[in-house]
Amino acid sequence: MTTPVIGVLALQGDVREHLIALAAADAVARPVRRPEELAEVDGLVLPGGESTTISKLAELFGLAAPLRERIAAGLPVYGTCAGLIMLADKILDPRSGQETFGGIDMIVRRNAFGRQNESFEAAVEIRGIEDGPVDGVFIRAPWVESVGAEVEVLAEYGGHIVAVRQGRALATSFHPELTGDHRIHALFVDMVRDAR
Asked: When you count CB atoms within 10 A of the terminal residue's CB, does the N or C end of the chain come out lower?
């Protein structure tokens, strides 16, 4: 079986860290900034950053519409932090003009765990991840307020949903790419392989 090619949306956020984590999980990882680069990948990671900025830059670079189309058509996609927000079908408190790419039937709350100075790390048990909890790095992190019937809740922290999966879409409120633990990226690489 050939190695999957997985892109990282390279408009803002922890692009380099995700590229390293994907490579460690046996994928060919490359940055995606243009529609023609998006067309060449088997899966895509939406990194953290600022969701309103990602939304605006995706429009500016001509990526928003192709991204929505490919996600709707079943492109495997994994969103962390702001990437989780961008995969939500609805945001509770969107900034003016903010739009998402959609893909997961969930409602999310931006910056739900607090401001930058309230960022923290915590051990998070995730369904489907073996060998103990993962280190969750929560930086101005969102949480999932509610999910539709087709969404599988993979993890909760402090009574709030922080990891979900719906079909070929995976999302976490936290940043596993900052920890050196590549198990969630390996799970996503397996999802991409299964989709091919």
From this structure: N
